[in-house]
Amino acid sequence: MTKPSPKPFLFVGKPVRDEYGRHLGRIASFMVKPNGRIDGVFVEHGDGEFLRYPNDQFKIDGESVVILPSIKLKVKSLCSEIPLIWRKDQALSALSKRKGFPADLFDVLHENFDGALNQLKADAQSTLDDIDRQTEKCDRQIKDLHSALINLEIEREIGRIEDKAYQTAMGIIQQALKQANDEKSDLESMKKQLSNIILGETAEEPPVAAEEEEEREEEAPPDSQLPEPPVMVDVTPGS
Fold first, then answer.
1. Which of 40, 52, 153, 209 has the least C-beta neighbours within 10 A?
2. Buried b / exposed e across 107-146, counting CB within 10 Å, b at 16+?
3. Which residues contact 74 (CB under 8 A, 6 or more apart)?
4. CA distance 126 to 122
5. For 5-36, how does the pLDDT look when each residue is reduced to its tens digit (9 = 90+)?
6. What's the pLDDT tens digit per position in 80-123?
7. CATH homologous superfamily of domain 9-68?
């Protein structure tokens, strides 16, 4: 039996932050499988709350550990799975026309692909709703921070706050504004990407090297013409 590696436990007590630099807490422990693989990470948050996170939601950044937003992992998964299922269904139709699959077998496979695709699109719509809620939260935070900034300037103007305290408060507010704006920008980018996928659009595939393209042509039958995925279009309002 493989012994669990002791290395992960070197991070116990290390700070944990989110992708935007906010301090969240510290590593408390790990869930380790018998083969030594990490299966979960236990985090003590700043408010004393103790939570377990899946291993794939973490990355190491120097001396600290970063928790990746779960919604970002969800978007990445959906943007990979939806085009894949779509292409499989299109490939099934193309092959059925050339090879003459039994109708009942084709129907079963098509219904499986179609059902999986519809479920993924429903998950994508639910994820878009979550993105909207998080974006609204960022907007409220940004508004509050601007209000805090204005009130800070007023207090300094009338001489009720010393320069050192002013500079400290200014640094805190500006850092929080940057984090909130970075998160909002990230959310807007995820929404645009996922919206395109829901509409049945996928990004164009990267160009294939000439040598690789020739190998594909040699391997494929002369009449092999699988359907190409739809072309990406910009759905940004006002474009």
1. 209
2. eebeeebeebbeebbeebeebbebbeebbeebeebbeebe
3. 123, 127
4. 6
5. 447 678 888 899 999 999 999 999 988 888 87
6. 999 999 999 999 999 888 888 888 889 999 999 999 999 999 99
7. PRC-barrel domain (2.30.30.240)
